[in-house]
């Protein structure tokens, strides 16, 4: 039975990491298309073009690890309700965003910060291009289409051509987390911060493998998913961090520019893409940072309100894109870059691995049921 959640958060704000070094990470985040908002000896804060004062935070530590995710509460009374329910203090946020927050721990040990009253950043103006399509010729006559500095974005650096224009990240849109017990995780996010299930991931045996969940803001449309809680097949728990997904400021060209920027830069590891997801419908492109954590550029996702009921889908639908390359076997696992190729040498992609087994299993079960 549905119980009323302790609160209903409005959106996601930032992800928090602990890192052993900042310089390489700062370089990556610039290339990924974020802007440094603030830094001190112990922390770095990066923002997008949207109104969040920052969307990525890292503090200096002994390990490279994901700490957690922050969400935005609509009202201070939401913090009071969480404080009472979980017996945690409401504290003043001493970081540059200001306001107040409570910090909870989810079933997989992930810190969940719920914040209220943070400063809003001045958004950075972005001019969208008008696209001609097969159906609509919307662009003004006699006007040529140019992105950034057009062909001048290609610069010869040493002996290689580098595409200079990066994506312009707008905001953090979601995280994907690996769960030991997906039902416990889905229930926790539903009961604590009011997330609704958009898609339930159901294994061929009927067990839950996780879900795509969104904020409950009533009539107001929100992203199809603000979290994807998933128990990836396999014997070893890969750690809680799957990826963080950031919406780019403009559309497909913004995503594509970022792809060629990171690719021709030659320093970073491409994880998966470019394609269009089935669940959430967004176009995606995933890149690993120097510490082995994956970050996604996305654009053109589905927006849905609270009236849409949960949908049951198979893991097969999770792995399959509407179009795009197969997901690599390393997808969803954080690991040092050196290890990624070792894993991929054994199992090149999820179509050849677990999804093939699942598809066979599903077909056999369908035959039995006929
Ligand atoms: Fe994603």
| Cα end-to-end separation | 32 Å
The main β sheet shows up as: 10 strands, mixed
Which structural class do you get from the secondary structure elements? Answer: alpha+beta
Helix content: 10-25%
CATH class: Alpha Beta
Report the sheet-strand fraction: 25-35%
**Mean of all residue-level pLDDT scores:** 94
CATH superfamily label = 2,3-Dihydroxybiphenyl 1,2-Dioxygenase, domain 1
Catalogue the ligands. fe (ii) ion
CATH topology: 2,3-Dihydroxybiphenyl 1,2-Dioxygenase, domain 1
Rg, nearest Å: 21 Å
Strand line-up across the major sheet: 21-12-13-15-11-16-19-18-17-22
DSSP E strands, number: 22
Q: What would you call the shape?
A: globular
What does this molecule look like?
With 370 residues, the chain is of the alpha+beta class. It is built from 7 helices and 22 strands. The protein has helices at residues 23-32, 76-86, 182-193, 252-265, 315-319, 337-346, 354-369; strands spanning 11-19, 35-39, 43-47, 56-60, 65-72, 91-92, 100-105, 111-116, 154-157, 160-163, 169-178, 196-202, 208-214, 222-223, 227-230, 241-248, 269-277, 283-288, 294-299, 303-304, 311-314, 321-323. Strand 17 (269-277) and strand 18 form a beta hairpin. The chain starts with 10 loop residues before the first strand and ends with a helix. The model has no long low-confidence stretch (mean pLDDT 94). Bound molecules: fe (ii) ion.
């Amino acid at each position: 039975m549905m119980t009323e959640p302790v609160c209903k958060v409005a959106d996601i704000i930032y992800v928090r990491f602990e890192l052993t070094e900042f310089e390489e990470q700062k370089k990556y985040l610039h290339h990924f298309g974020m802007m440094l908002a603030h830094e001190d000896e112990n922390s770095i804060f990066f923002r997008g073009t949207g109104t969040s004062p920052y969307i990525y935070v890292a503090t200096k530590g002994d390990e490279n690890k994901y700490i957690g995710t922050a969400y935005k509460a609509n009202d201070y009374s939401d913090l009071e309700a969480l404080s009472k329910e979980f017996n945690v203090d409401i504290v003043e946020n001493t970081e540059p965003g200001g306001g107040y927050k409570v910090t909870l721990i989810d079933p997989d040990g992930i810190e969940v910060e719920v914040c209220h009253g943070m400063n809003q950043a001045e958004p950075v103006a972005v001019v969208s291009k008008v696209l001609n399509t097969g159906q609509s010729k919307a662009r003004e006559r006699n006007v040529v289409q140019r992105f950034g500095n057009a062909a001048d974005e290609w610069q010869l650096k040493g002996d290689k051509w580098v595409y200079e224009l990066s994506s312009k990240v707008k905001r953090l849109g979601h995280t994907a987390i690996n769960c030991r017990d997906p039902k416990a995780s889905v229930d926790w996010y539903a009961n604590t911060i009011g997330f609704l299930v958009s898609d339930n991931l159901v294994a061929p045996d009927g067990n839950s493998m996780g879900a795509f969940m969104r904020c409950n803001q009533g009539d107001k449309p929100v992203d199809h998913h603000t979290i994807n809680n998933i128990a990836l097949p396999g014997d070893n728990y890969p750690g809680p961090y799957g990826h963080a997904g950031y919406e780019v400021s403009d559309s497909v060209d913004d995503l594509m520019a970022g792809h060629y920027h990171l690719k021709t830069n030659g320093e970073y590891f491409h994880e998966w893409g470019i394609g269009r997801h089935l669940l959430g419908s967004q176009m995606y492109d995933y890149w690993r940072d120097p510490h082995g954590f994956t970050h996604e550029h996305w654009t053109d996702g589905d927006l849905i309100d609270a009236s849409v009921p949960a949908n049951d889908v198979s893991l097969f639908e999770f792995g399959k894109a509407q179009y795009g390359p197969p997901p690599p076997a390393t997808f969803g696992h954080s690991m040092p870059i050196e290890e990624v190729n070792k894993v991929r040498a054994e199992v090149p992609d999820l179509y050849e691995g677990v999804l093939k087994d699942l598809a066979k299993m599903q077909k056999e079960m369908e035959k039995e049921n006929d």
